[in-house]
């Protein structure tokens, strides 16, 4: 048995507080909670999207301090903007940076925003959006080529694009291979089965229940492999969520309204210029202005008037509009002019052909459940749990933030994240 210290972090994307009653009836998750620390009231980030959330977990910073303020870049003239999957976009230090610097063996499997990171065994989560880009080549260029080629030759046939549960089944096979052959000191794995299932089928129902059961089996299998390859007394095992999801039945296209009001222009379906434009975060949306008009008081006054109209129109599903300063205070992009929060049941997309439509009628990005909304919404609250080396058995806290997790895990590992916004959850540390 290898007695070295190990830290394992398993992210269950879109699993949240609403799932905890059921998850606590399942054998493996309930064991982790029973034998260790648990908080079922973890506030996500704003906007509560996967890339900003996972970056806050590993940096201990809110999005506007680590730089990942959306899943994709602000590229208003592109139909499909580039995803922010590269480590170079992150401002600050990450857990895996610190571990690598200390000489620890690291592995990140589909953990968001790790493209090009200094990680020993890296399967980056890559989303390609340009015609000449190739998913496999981009993955090899941003990950660990020899390791990736080996995994692909062994388990590649298990994948079916990004469809679930095939993708997580491939990830599980890769996780077992990584543990048994490399036994890293820091292992970080990101599963998306529940997230995909909720987007496709809604926030509740038998499909979601089955996906949660699959996750519990995955936890049990990983624990079994860890027990067979090392000393569990020297292993810290963390399982966490990044956000949850809220049901949706209506889509709003605010850029259609901006186009009709003359704030943006198109030619042949392509945006050619804009004075103001929105960028969707699903359950919320950034509103950006062209910097050339930032000092135009007539323009700013007319835009403010339009925002007031938007907020008062029930068909547009706007719950709240935050100023740039208010958005920044919540951790969102301070470079926006405003942040628009959707009412439950609504989400925003960027297209300009129509103003609103039913989710069931759309040919765009159909989602029956969404996130990206305020972390304060009850249905969007997530969880954090762990047991093993350095973690107090039976420890609990009433609430915490996602950006508390990085400093706390770093403390477990004998590391320190500098200039973090989060606090070490001392109640958890033995």
Structural description of this entry:
By secondary structure, the chain is an alpha/beta fold. The chain folds into 2 domains: 6-245 and 377-412, Alkaline Phosphatase, subunit A (3-Layer(aba) Sandwich); 247-370, Gyrase A, domain 2 (2-Layer Sandwich). 32% of the residues lie in helices and 21% in strands. The protein has helices spanning 20-23, 27-34, 50-59, 63-66, 95-101, 135-142, 145-155, 166-182, 193-201, 206-229, 254-260, 297-312, 324-329, 405-412, and strands at residues 6-12, 37-43, 106-109, 121-123, 186-191, 235-240, 246-252, 264-267, 270-274, 276-280, 284-289, 318-323, 338-342, 345-348, 356-358, 369-370, 382-388, 400-401. The strands form 4 sheets. Strands 4-3-5-1-6-17-2-18 form an 8-stranded mixed β-sheet, sandwiched between helices. Strands 7, 14, 15 and 16 form a 4-stranded mixed β-sheet that branches. It has a 4-stranded antiparallel β-sheet with strand order 10-11-13-12. α9 runs antiparallel to α10 (206-229). The two termini are 24 Å apart.
Strand content: 15-25%
Largest sheet descriptor: 8 strands, mixed
> So, CATH architecture of the largest domain?
3-Layer(aba) Sandwich
Alpha-beta classification: alpha/beta
Q: List the total number of helices.
A: 14
Low-confidence parts: none
Instruction: Report how far apart the termini are.
Output: 24 Å
Q: Main sheet: which strands, in order across? A: 4-3-5-1-6-17-2-18
Count of distinct structural domains? 2
Number of strands: 18
The level of helicity is 25-40%
Q: What best-fitting shape do the alpha-carbon axes yield?
A: globular
Mean pLDDT, to the nearest integer, reads 96
Q: What is the CATH topology classification name of the largest domain?
A: Alkaline Phosphatase, subunit A
CATH superfamily of the largest domain: Alkaline Phosphatase, subunit A
Radius of gyration: 22 Å
């Amino acid at each position: 048995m290898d007695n070295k210290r190990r830290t394992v972090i398993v992210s269950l994307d879109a699993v949240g507080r609403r799932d905890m009653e059921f998850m606590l009836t399942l054998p493996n998750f309930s064991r982790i909670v029973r034998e260790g620390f648990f908080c079922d009231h973890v506030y996500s980030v704003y906007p509560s999207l996967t890339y900003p959330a996972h970056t806050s977990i590993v940096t201990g910073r809110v999005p506007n301090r680590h730089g990942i303020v959306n899943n994709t870049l602000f590229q208003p003239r592109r139909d499909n903007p580039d995803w922010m999957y590269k480590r170079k976009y992150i401002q600050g230090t990450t857990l895996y940076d610190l571990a690598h610097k200390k000489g620890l063996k690291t592995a990140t499997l589909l953990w968001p925003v790790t493209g090009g990171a200094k990680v020993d065994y890296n399967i980056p989560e890559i989303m390609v959006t340009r015609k000449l880009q190739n998913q496999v080549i981009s993955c090899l260029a941003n990950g660990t080529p020899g390791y990736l080629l080996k995994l692909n030759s062994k388990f590649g046939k298990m994948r079916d694009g990004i469809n679930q549960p095939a993708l997580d089944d491939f990830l599980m096979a890769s996780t077992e291979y990584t543990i048994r052959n490399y036994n890293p000191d820091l292992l970080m794995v990101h599963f998306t089965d529940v997230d995909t299932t909720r987007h496709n089928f809604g926030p509740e129902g038998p499909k979601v229940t089955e996906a949660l059961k699959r996750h519990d089996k995955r936890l049990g299998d990983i624990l079994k492999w860890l027990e067979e390859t090392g000393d569990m007394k020297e292993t810290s095992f963390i399982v966490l969520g990044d956000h949850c999801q809220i049901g949706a039945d209506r889509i709003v296209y605010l850029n259609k309204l901006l186009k009709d009001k003359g704030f943006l222009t198109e030619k042949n379906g392509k945006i050619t210029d804009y004075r103001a434009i929105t960028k969707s975060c699903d359950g919320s949306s950034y509103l950006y202005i062209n910097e050339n008009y930032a000092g135009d008081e007539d323009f700013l006054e007319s835009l403010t008037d339009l925002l007031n109209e938007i907020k008062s129109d029930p068909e547009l599903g706007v719950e709240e509009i935050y100023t740039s300063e208010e958005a920044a205070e919540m951790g969102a992009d301070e470079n926006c002019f405003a942040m628009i929060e959707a009412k439950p049941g609504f989400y925003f997309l960027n297209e300009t052909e129509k103003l609103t439509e039913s989710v069931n009628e759309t040919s765009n990005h159909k989602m029956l459940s969404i996130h990206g909304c305020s972390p304060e919404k009850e249905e969007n609250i997530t969880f954090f749990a762990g047991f093993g080396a350095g973690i107090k058995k039976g420890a609990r806290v009433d609430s915490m933030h996602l950006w508390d997790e990085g400093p706390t895990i770093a403390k477990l590992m004998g590391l320190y994240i500098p200039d973090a916004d989060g606090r070490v959850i001392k109640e958890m540390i033995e």
